[in-house]
## 1
Amino acid sequence: MAKLKALALLLLLGLAWAVRPGEPLPDFALLDPAGNLVTPKTMKKPAVIVFWASWCPVCRAEFPGLHKVAEETKVPFYVISREPKDTREVVLEYMKAYPRFIPLLASDRDKPHEVAGRFKVTGQPWTFVVDKEGKVVALFAGRAGREALLDALLLAGVELP
């Protein structure tokens, strides 16, 4: 029970520390699979940014539902591995099952796990919903439920089907 309480406290502290709703996205410069530079200014918005890791069982369980929302809404879902050991090859192989996701990869300027640090992400999955101005409207630490994610997309100005 004490371990569970400590874990809950760490999660709450992480949420308090992370980029919060109303704040702009931290600066980053990562590459999409085609080699195009993606930054907060160049990314399509509204959008969803998901920090994940290839070994994460919660991410594996969550991705099919997130992918379905991406398919239904046509909102870009940018996925960034916060695991330094997730190579380009590992990420691209993993993402074959999720063609609507846009994996963001290391560039000459940034590494994905460093970007996670700028967002102050302390675990995975962490999901940020971003409006057309590039401001965070919602944050989910852990699994993002379908209805809550759809509500956040509405807040971001997405017209749902």
## 2
Amino acid sequence: MEKSERRPITLAASLAGLRLIGAGAVLGLALAVPASPAQADPPRPPATTQDQPDEAPES
């Protein structure tokens, strides 16, 4: 049985592969962790309306 010929791999290619593996691991963890329920904003008091005349006085 012959040994397979090994090709040198550049540093840039190996780093790109490691980044891809790391991104897959992060994505896998993000999908595996149960999502916490989103916290709702506290209820706001009703907006107060100011009494304004229907027609503005002409000057």
